[in-house]
Amino acid sequence: MKKDAGTVVAVSRSSVHEFSKPVEDSIELLAGLGVRDDAHAGVTVQHRSRVAVDPTQPNLRQVHLIHAELHDELRSRGFDVSPGQLGENITVRGLDLLGLPRGTRLHIGAEAIVEVTGLRNPCAQINGLQDGLMKAVLDRDAQGRLVRKAGVMGVVIAGGHVRPGEDIQVELPTGRPVALSRV
């Protein structure tokens, strides 16, 4: 069952391995690969730190999504952030990305489907954007467990163009939900 849950605010991509990605008018998602002309697209992992460990592992990080509400929170704490600067491909609003279970399918616009694989684990490069930003995207819950707030990662199930303003529908997986962990 699908339900309306959010809206695309911005889309970004970069053909080179840089931390931030420039905002585009639209991006094209390619099934099983990721974002066309993005450095992180591929069947196997493309993030340099992961390639160094095992270049044959499957790419569970084809698409990075961040909730615009995180940008709002960071700006209220004095950080100057905008879509694409934290390395995301798709910035969304009105969708609790961090609360989704693994395997959730996000139907974006008319064609694209992204399956959520896990939480983005922010790296120290984030402090290169602004000092203290790494600490700001990490938190602790009431039980003292680490909370990663820097968005979610996913794989492209069905390709298509994605543009700002498009609706996102959520299709939860069947069976017992599995909480997101870092990928």
Automatic annotation (TrEMBL):
Transmembrane segments annotated in the record for this chain: none
Protein name, as recorded: MOSC domain-containing protein
Family matches, as Pfam families: MOSC
Domain of life per record: Bacteria
Span of domain MOSC: 21-171
Listed InterPro entries: MoCF_Sase_C (IPR005302), MOSC_domain (IPR052716), Pyrv_Knase-like_insert_dom_sf (IPR011037)
